[in-house]
Specification:
By secondary structure, the chain is α+β, with helices and mostly antiparallel strands. The protein folds into two domains: about 160 residues, Regulatory protein AraC (Jelly Rolls), CATH 2.60.120.280; about 110 residues, Orthogonal Bundle (Arc Repressor Mutant, subunit A). Helices cover about 45% and strands about 20% of the residues. A hairpin with a 2-residue loop joins strand 5 and strand 6. Helix 3 packs antiparallel against helix 4 and helix 9 crosses helix 10. It is globular, with a radius of gyration of 21 Å. The model has no long low-confidence stretch (mean pLDDT about 90). It comes from Blautia obeum. Keywords: DNA-binding, Transcription, Transcription regulation.
Length: about 290
Amino acid sequence: MRLPKHLMPTDYFSVIPKTDVQITALPFYIREVGYCNDRKFIRGACNNYSDYLFVYSLCTMKFKKNDEKHPVHSHDIIVSACNTPLTFSLPISYGKTQREYLYFIIGGSHAQQFYNYIRRHDCTFHFNKLHHMLDLFLEILEIDYKSDPLSAQMHASSVVHQIYLELYILSQNILNAKKQTPVQDSAVNTALKYIQTHYQSDLSIDAVCNSVSFSKYYFCKLFKEHIGISIHQYVTEFRINKSKELLSYSKLSISAIATSVGFKNALTYTRNFEKLEHMTPSEYRELY
């Protein structure tokens, strides 16, 4: 399993690498790349029809294209052709570190073909924060496009191919999930409700599977196909999200919060919290 690194840049920036005939002949090449926190972000007006924008959001924002507005959540990826202005707007109330996002714009001989493989009406793909997709975006940002432009763009082309592959796999999983029978769909929904009702107790995977009367092996596979993550991971994230409410609005101790959302002890809770939020529960409480 590939573990995420998520080492964010220390400064905000935007770069337009120089290109030549060799570079523009690559399957994919970077036309622009950046790490931003602007409240309004607009791209597409000065790009070619065959350019494609990729945005990785680290916050909640709104995305507008062709007068249609779409919500964007943290760890969502937006992929769109630059055939019309694309506008991203963020709440005025957000501080600088609450409105961060990464982006890059590509061209290339394979850009349109690969985009057609994964294109969606709302242009949005939902990813889990534990997925390594963010690290692929960061790798695009970290490449030195000045010292050896061709080598840098070849490197970037390889990473863009990996990103397209991850988006294609996600698209296929969504299509397969939609083909599930009503019984399967109902079973997953029942399991979700069971988790939401029993998350404070010693909730096991066996208990979740028994709640829908499916075998453990079969239902674990079905759940992941439908939701995109394992039962264990979903339960952990659900508990962490519940704990964030208590951290923000209660004066309970960290240990008391850990117990109240179903963790066996404060140490296990803190470790899981840090993996998901990249900060301790105490740091989260100070910020929010």
